[in-house]
Amino acid sequence: MKYYELLSMLYDFEYKLAVMYEIFSKNYANDNEACALFSKMCTEEVNHSDAVKYLMRTVKGNAPGEVSVDADLGQMEAVIGKVDDTIKSELPIPVDEAVRFALFLENNSLELLYKTASAQVDPKFVRLVEYLNSGSTEHQAKIERLARKRGLLPEEAA
After folding, report:
1. Distances from the Cα of 6 to the Cαs of 120, 137, 150, 151, in angstroms?
2. How many CA atoms lie within 13 Å of 8's alpha carbon, on the beta-carbon side?
3. Measured between alpha carbons, how far is 8 from 59 in angstroms, rounded to an integer?
């Protein structure tokens, strides 16, 4: 896979997460807690997509050619496809299902980013992945708190 294509895939993922979280925040406007969380996550995903876009601009034309990526790109494409399907859905999913889906995405994005980081193509890319990972870790913790509060996950052991 070409390095620039890998960055494009990451951008696509981060941007679509932002769009989906924005839709969720609007769909659950009557649920203050869920609305606030999804709205904040939307803003953070926009920041993530901007960071990827910036790196894309800096490497365009100067990017290494083919890169070996230790990631299941098919899995990444499948996850992006699930986000696409959710965005295109005419009927909003129930809020608890949205929380579960967001938790699934944040858990899977961590795994995908770690695997992708092992490509070690460029120090800027590694820093970008670390930045994206820190945001995903925060998102995962926020979604888990909301899921626990709603009884969607078991309480943490003391």
Report:
1. 12, 21, 36, 37
2. 7
3. 12
Q: Give residue-wise pLDDT tens across range 17-54.
A: 999 999 999 999 999 999 999 999 999 999 989 988 98
Domains of the chain: 3-149 (1.20.1260.10)
The encoded tokens of residue 5 equal 């294509």
Dist. CA 112–CA 80, nearest whole Å: 12
Output the pTM of the full model.
Answer: 0.79
Cβ(118)–Cβ(70) below 8 Å = yes
Alpha helices by DSSP H, listed for the chain, are 3-27, 32-59, 73-88, 95-117, 123-149
